[in-house]
Amino acid sequence: MNWLTNYVRPKIRTLLGRKDVPDNLWHKCPACEQMIFHLELAKNLRVCPNCGHHMRLPAKERLASLMDEGFATIELPAVPADPLHFRDQKRYADRLKAARAETELDDAIIVAHGTIGGQRAVVAVFAFDFMGGSMGTAVGEALVAAAKLAVLQEAALIAITASGGARMQEGALSLMQMPRTTIAVQIVKEAGLPYIVVLTDPTTGGVTASFAMLGDIHVAEPGAMIGFAGARVIEQTVREKLPEGFQRAEYLNEHGMVDIVARRAELRDTLSRLIGLLTEPAARRAARPSAEVLALPGISEG
Amino acid sequence: MRHFLDFEKPIAEIEGKIEELRHLPESPDMNISEEVERLSEKVDKLIRSTYAKLTPWQKTQVARHPGRPHAADVVAGLITEFVPLAGDRAFADDRAIIAGLGRFEGSAVAVLGTEKGAETEDRVAHNFGMARPEGYRKARRVIELAGRFGLPVLTFVDTPGAYPGIDAEARGQAEAIARAIEACLAAPVPVVSTIIGEGGSGGAIALAAADHVLMFEHAIYSVISPEGCASILWRDAALAETAAEALKLTAEDLKKLGLIDTIVPEPLGGAHRDPTAAIAALGKAVSTALAPLSGEPGARLVARRREKFLAMGRAAPAA
Lengths: 302, 319
Ligand SMILES: [Zn+2]
Prior knowledge:
The complex is a heterodimer.
Chain A: H1 2-16, E1 26-28, E2 35-37, H2 38-43, H3 59-66, E3 72-73, H4 92-103, E4 109-116, E5 119-126, H5 137-153, E6 156-163, H6 171-175, H7 177-190, E7 195-203, H8 205-208, E8 217-220, H9 231-238, H10 249-254, E9 260-261, H11 267-287, H12 290-294
Parallel strand pairs in A: 5-6, 6-7, 7-8, 8-9
Antiparallel strand pairs in A: 1-2, 3-4, 4-5
Helix pairs in contact in A: 5-7
Chain B: H1 9-23, H2 32-52, H3 56-63, H4 71-78, E1 79-85, E2 97-104, E3 107-114, H5 120-125, H6 133-149, E4 153-159, H7 166-170, H8 173-186, E5 191-200, H9 201-205, E6 212-216, E7 220-222, H10 226-234, H11 240-247, H12 251-256, E8 262-264, H13 275-290, H14 298-311
Bound molecules: zinc ion.
Zinc ion (ZN) binds at residues 29, 31-32, 34, 48, 50-51, 53 of chain A.
C-alpha cells in the first residue's frame, strides 16, 4: 500500500479535495505487484487479472461464487469451548472470541447446502482468516455434520480446504479430528455419494493428512500450497533448498496426488460436471424398473 | 553406560556412590554393606518421590529416554513365531515402521510398530522412528491383510512424527497417513494400539485409530512436539516446558479427556529402569484390552470404533 499512500493518494486528494479516500480501494497483487482496483478484483473472484495469481478467497465469497442462488448455511454443532483451558501468549478463549468478532463466523468452517450448476451438493468451506483455518473439535464436528447432511439429502459432499493444520490450542483433541473427519468421509462414500476435495492455498498438516487426501476426486487451485509438513520444518530437517514449485498444486498434480488443477473461474463448471458424471449411473438405476436391471443379458435361469 | 536425565542427577549421584562402595574391599573400619543398604533405601525413596510427580516436560524426556523399550523390544518380548513383513509393494520398505505376523499369547495376530532404533547406526536405518509414505502404506497393507484373515492388529507407537522431507512430500506423505487412518478405522478385526514412548502427531494417529488405545504411564501423545508448539505459539523453542504443560500430553491428561482407554503402569523409575518388567506389564494390559474384542463380528467392531471416535470431544472433560 506504500506506493498508493505516497503517490496516488495525495494526488487524488488534491483532485477531489477529500481527506478520507479509503485505503482499500486498490490491492497490490503479491505475485506481480500490479495495482488492481477493488471492484475489478472482486469481479474476478480475487484472481489477479494481470498474472492469474489466485489470492485467498474468504469463505462466504467462495460459497457465493460456487453455489447457485438459494443455498443455505447450517448452524455449526455446538462443542465444548477451550477444553484444555489453553493459554499461550493469549488465552485460547480470548483468541476464539477475537476471531469470532473479526470474521463473524463461529469457527474456521462454513457448511452450506444447495446446488452447484444444478447438482445437489453439501459444501464445507474452510475460513482461513479464522485462526489460520485450523482444525479443532468444532471444525471436525462440522465436517461430520456435513457428511450426515449429504447422506440425508443424497447430495455430493464438497470440502474446500484452506488450513494451516491442527488447532494446537486443543492439543490431542485436535489430533483426533483426523480419524473423526476420516469417518465423515467413510459415511459419504458408503452411501455411494461423491466426495470431492477442492484444495486451496494453503492446505497443510493434519487437514491434508486426513479427509483432504481421501477424496474421490482432488481438484486444486493454481499455485496453492498443499503438503503435510511446513516448508520451514522440511528445510531445517533436510538442510537443502526446496525444489522449484515444491508443494504447489501443479507439483502435486505431477506427483499423482491431484487430479485437476482448475482456475477459480472454472471451478463451478468443473464441480457441476463431475457430480453430474459420478451420479448419473445411480440416477439411471433409480429410474429403471428393477426387473429390467435384473434381466441381464447372458444370465439365464436353470 | 547408563543414561541419566537432568532431573535424575541426584539419583545418579547416589547410585554412583553405591557402585563405588561395592567395589571397595571390605575394611574393618566401616561396614560397607550396611552403608550400601542405607544408600539403596535412600535412592529408592528418591526415585519414588521423583517419579510420583513428574512434570509434563520431565515425562517428555522419559518418553524419549534411549533406554526405554522400543517397538522391536516389545515385539521380541510379547510375540512368538514372529514373521517380519516388508514393503509397500509400490516403492520401498520403510524400516521406521516394523510389521509382521506372529502369535500373541498363542493366537495369531498382525503387528505394527514405529521403531526408533537402538544404536546410532540402527537409528539412522530406522530414520529415528520417522516414517515416510512407504511406511504408512506398508501399515495399511498389513492392516488390510489382517482384516482379510481375521487377525487382530496390535500396534506399538513410538515416533517423533512423520518424516518431514522432500522425498516424503513428493510421494504423498499426507495421503499415505490419511489412508493408514482410514485402514485402521475400516478394519473388520480388533485393533489395539499402545503409545509406548512418543506419540507424535499424524505419524502416531496413523497407527492408533483403534478400538482400544493404551498408553504407558510416562509416554506422551500430542498434536505437536512441545518444542514445535513453543516455537510457533510462543515464538521461542526454549519455552518447550511451558508448552508441554499447556498441551496436556500426559497419559493422565489424555485419559481425562477421554482420548485413551488404559494407562499401563511402568516399573518404579520408568520403563527404562526395567524394560523386561515394563514389557510384561504391557503384555497383560494388551491381553485384557483384546479379550472383550475377540470374536466380535467385524461390522460391530467397525461401528463401535466409529462411535468411540465420534464421541470424542463432544462433552466437556471431567475435571
Ligand atoms: Zn498478479
